[in-house]
């Protein structure tokens, strides 16, 4: 056996974790940075949620369906039943999961491009219904004045997630961390090996005792639920919702772009994509080309696909391996 | 779980399958006893691999049913059939290309039986299996970098990792050198000595005739004859099915 070099990645992870928790304490007034880094974490969480199912080899172009249903589930529960946003966001997640269940039944036998096209089309169904059911969903006008996240009191300290952008950053960071832990399990656990074997050869996996249908089902339900949670959370951060906003192609494509850019097979890949691309887009592209900054996004993605086909994360890992040996 | 050598292991009852209204298997009935080595022979398109697909749950038969140790497994999903103790290899190897050879085998170790947690103790099981098929030096190589003959052996190691009691081997000797075939014969005999029941598919008879207790000859989706290897190989329809149309045409011309 080869002599193994000491594994430094847990140390690196810990250092990064501390950095992410500590920097806002020293930059008290950096409101813009809280906002951008918070949203980067949010999109990291969204990319993690998307990638959970993509790890089984199924590239979805329709996660906006879960996102939008989560958003509307949360907003309408909040509007009609006056329940706390924290509860209604959970309900939004469940809405996503219900739609995920229908996906699981109807798209069971679709793979590859046909699956992707079916998911893309499936976004239109809830969108059209919500667009036209004016009396219940307020139609294409949407809703405004959605309450922000209420403050929580914890042992005398007030956590104003809705008012203070710094508290919101921490909230989003922890939210991302939680989904990140689930995503890590989907790669490194026994369940993760099942997912990986399905991705690499479904027929062989089944022959070796992997419950293919069950594992795909679990991954999809989890992915749909968490994407629904993201959708629910999103509208309470933004304060408004309309069908064209939450059922947009942009929201289906973004997690895909971030994951592929960051590296789909590393447990930190989707987050890496979000932490690089989102701030770069907001701080640089936005100020350079205010109108067409999405085009730069597109260019970056094409470049990534050409030069880092397995993502930045895989590339960095490779470099580090060479550096160590 | 001692099983008497004469007990029925696998039974196909009037199994048939159609693909897009085209009949691929007509009506196949077959009984395999414990610790038997049975070979299914026949020309291309006879339906040999289709039988494996049906037994392992990848294909749903249109007609008939499959019994394994008294259980009707016809509608079981593939992983449940694997957990029940049936393993198979694929004619065209289906490795997990990005995993190492060892990881390929470990998937079988971890998932072959229900509730098998991954752990260091189990990793040694995978290493032993690689040694059995002569791949221990390739343990850390990604499967996509293995040669054809290595992939065949990896298939066998992986199938064994699920601890099957009935193993279906699909053309493990096709395209191998005479030396590799001799190794394959040794491996098959070693497996039988471990108490496994084996069904082999072979196109060229180079392996089967030497190890089988019984041959089953298949042509156009039907069993044309089954019995001791020597008997089956002398059967005129087997000869003509094997040598194919050219031979038949030749005979007709001679007759004319």
Give keywords.
heterodimer; A: about 325 residues; mainly alpha; ABC transporter involved in vitamin B12 uptake, BtuC; two-stranded antiparallel sheet; two-stranded antiparallel ribbon; 4 strands; globular; B: about 260 residues; alpha/beta; six-stranded mixed sheet; four-stranded antiparallel sheet; 10 strands; about 40% helix
Describe it.
The complex is a heterodimer of chains A (325) and B (256). With 325 residues, chain A is mainly α. Chain A has a single domain (9-324), classed as ABC transporter involved in vitamin B12 uptake, BtuC. Helices cover 74% and strands 3% of the residues of chain A. The model of chain A has no long low-confidence stretch (mean pLDDT 89). Chain B is an alpha/beta fold. Chain B has a six-stranded mixed beta sheet with strand order 6-7-8-3-9-10, sandwiched between helices. Chain B has a four-stranded antiparallel beta sheet with strand order 2-1-4-5, with helices on one face. The longest helix of chain B is centred in the last third of the chain and has 20 residues, at 236-255. Chain B starts with 7 loop residues before the first strand and ends with a helix. The mean pLDDT of chain B is 85. Classes of the chains: A mainly alpha (325), B alpha/beta (256). Chain A binds chain B through residues 190, 193-194, 196-197, 200-201, 203-213, and chain B through 56-58, 77-79, 82-83, 87-88, 90, 94-99, 106-108, 110-114, 117-118, 158-159, 161-162.
